[in-house]
Amino acid sequence: MGLAVWRSWSWPRVNWYSVCGVLLLISVLLGLAWGGRLLGQTLADAERLPIDEIALVGQRSYTRDIEVRQALSAIEGDSLVTADMEKVRTALTRLPWVNRVTVRREWPNRLRLYLVEQRPMAHWNGGDWLNQDAQVFQAPPRSGIGALPQLAGPEGSSEKVWQNWLKFSELLRLNGFSPQRLTLSHRHAWTLTLEDGLELRLGRIEGIERLQRFIELWPTLSRQGRQAQYIDIRYDTGLAVGWQLEQRD
Prior knowledge:
It is found in: Cell inner membrane; Membrane. By secondary structure, this protein is α/β, with parallel strands linked by helices. Helix content is about 35%, strand content about 25%. Strands 6-5-4-7-8-9-10-11-12 form a 9-stranded mixed sheet, covered by helices on one side. It has a 3-stranded mixed sheet with strand order 1-3-2, with helices on one face.
């Protein structure tokens, strides 16, 4: 006769950590899917929203509103999302009196533009300008600029001419003279012109010493009773004077 063995039955053990992990993973995936759908819907809606406001920041003296509007026509009809910010910056930088531009989006519908204008410091070679960084730029004349020095020189010499102008003009003004023009020739010779038309020929040396020599000798020259047309200071010592011819009746 066989012996029957009874075993007690129990529920299998559940790893609740694994179950919770799976449920958490499912929740995260569902959340990401829902969030992606909402984000896609939001972006789709934003792409249909036009730019309602443009904030123009920065002091402007020479750039006109109509020029800015014409430059912004490049993004006409675009939304804040689809508008090409680099295209905006490039179009505004091409305006003649604009030096630098920063463009920034401001949600939900504003475009903020920071404009830094060229600051004219001198006329250059007759028809161009020098800005605050001694860079040459082309721009139409504007009212309110005032009197500026006339500078001239070969291509690539603008910074050198500007730095010498600052040194020469300061020394002359301190001694009662009014410089108006500084020219660097293609042979690298310097010529200063005063307000009354008197030319100071300095030669190729950029030294202040020659200009100082003119200042020291000017009281003697001014007592000669004749009008000097130019003063040649290219010599190591002394100078030469070219007198204006007297007009005869």
